[in-house]
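Researcher: Go.
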Amino acid sequence: MYRKSYIEISNNIEVEVRPAYLEDRSEILRRKHLFVYFITIRNRGAVQVQLLNRHWEIEDSAGETYEVDGDGVIGKKPYIGPGEKFEYNSSCMLKSHRGKMKGYYIMKNENREKIKVVIPEFTLTSHRLN
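Model: Structure:
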């Protein structure tokens, strides 16, 4: 199911993304291509953090771009302690068979300082070989 893993570390937080194409849930003739992505956030630092917000930049090969902002992820604002991880998955519908996503999370640490955590840019593609 997973084709490739994308990893970025910023502010002692590692973000790993594993995207996949859901061919059986896509409607190619209607230009609806469904992608799912699995995210693992690992706290490599020495203090607990809380994920507050997310920002996504989504681009498809048809030239359309979207920005998405929101509170938390999947309805949660998780706390992630030192050495711990938080995992979730979500999906994205594109009008073309190929695109890319990138973004960032805003988190706060135990000192209530906000930090920006980069989500690596990753490719979304329907091709069986990536």
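Model: The beta strands are 6-10, 13-21, 33-43, 49-60, 65-71, 79-80, 85-94, 98-109, 114-125.
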